Amino acid sequence: MSRAPIVSLIFVVLSIAACTPAPDGVQIHDPFEAQNRDIHAFNVALDRAFVRGASGVSEAAPEELTQPIVNFADNVGLPGAVLNGLLQGDIGGAATNTMRFVINSTVGVFGLLDPAGAIGLAEEETDFGETLYVWGLPEGAYVELPFYGPSTERDAVGRIVDAIIDPLGRVGSAPQLEYGGIARVAGQVVERGRLGDTLDDILYESADSYAQARLIYLQNRRFELGDEASTTDESFVDPFEDF
Fold it and tell me: What residue ranges do the domains of the chain occupy?
């Protein structure tokens, strides 16, 4: 066994012990609110100074130029989704994502195009945060991460482990390996542009953008996981999902 899976396993075990349990009846567990608000202010300043402007440029660009970036970024993330599907026992989802990756990486020119979607093979989105949920790890406290934004202790662990165990290096093509990281960042910028008005309303028009972002993230994430009855509409798009 390579070192990365061993390190990941140790990290998960330690993180399970470290997650801050919520008191009974508490729906929004935020014991780190002071620190979270400082990080939120940093993220908003970063968005104002750099990301919003870049995303505005991408939004003005023709979709024929921006959609291949999003396609490529989504495709290089599929091997990780396949692995998480297997870890969750979701064989059907893992098989669908495997077929998407194979078809889009070949017929779809390394993932720039999405012929798999055209024939009805929609991505089964998942991550290691969901894997930890399936394994029974509690949500833990709410945290805001620098650059990434709203999260929980469980999902923050998931982000780190996803990065450590990403199997793209074993199955990806040379262009996918070379440009995968850049494409993921560029894809997030494009998505920020597409959700510009929604995110602007939250970050710059809300009386308390921190509390608003926290509520939206927790409601939607719990709805995605089926963790509890949620008032979130099924068609609602989480503006923080790709960050």
Answer: 31-225
- In 3D space, the residue among 209, 205, 216 whose CA is nearest the CA of residue 151 turns out to be 216
Q: How far apart are CA 114 and CA 181, in angstroms?
A: 19
Burial 79-116 (b: 16+ CB within 10 A, else e): bbbbbbbbbbebeebbebbbebbebbbeebebbbbbeb
- pTM comes to 0.88
Give the C-alpha separation, 215 to 238, whole Å.
11
Measure the CA–CA gap between 46 and 89, rounded to whole angstroms: 39
Q: How many CB atoms lie within 10 A of CB 219?
A: 18
Could you report the per-residue pLDDT of 84-119, keeping only the tens digit for each? 999 999 999 999 999 999 999 999 999 999 999 999
**Is the pLDDT reported for residue 230 higher than 70?**
no
Q: Which amino acid is at 123?
A: E
Residue of 50, 47, 39 lying closest to 210 (CA atoms): 39
Cα–Cα distances (Å) from 100 to 23, 89, 122, 226, in that order, read 42, 19, 8, 25
3-state secondary structure 111-147: CCCCHHHHCCCCCCCCCHHHHHHHCCCCCCCEEEECC
Q: 119 with 107: CB under 8 angstroms?
A: no
What are the two backbone dihedrals, phi and then psi, of residue 145, each rounded to the nearest 5 degrees? Answer: -100, 140
Q: Which residues pair with 145 in a beta bridge?
A: 149
pLDDT digit string (tens) for 8-39? 666 665 666 567 788 888 999 999 999 999 99
Kindly report which listed range (49-53, 57-61, 137-141) carries the lowest average pLDDT score: 57-61
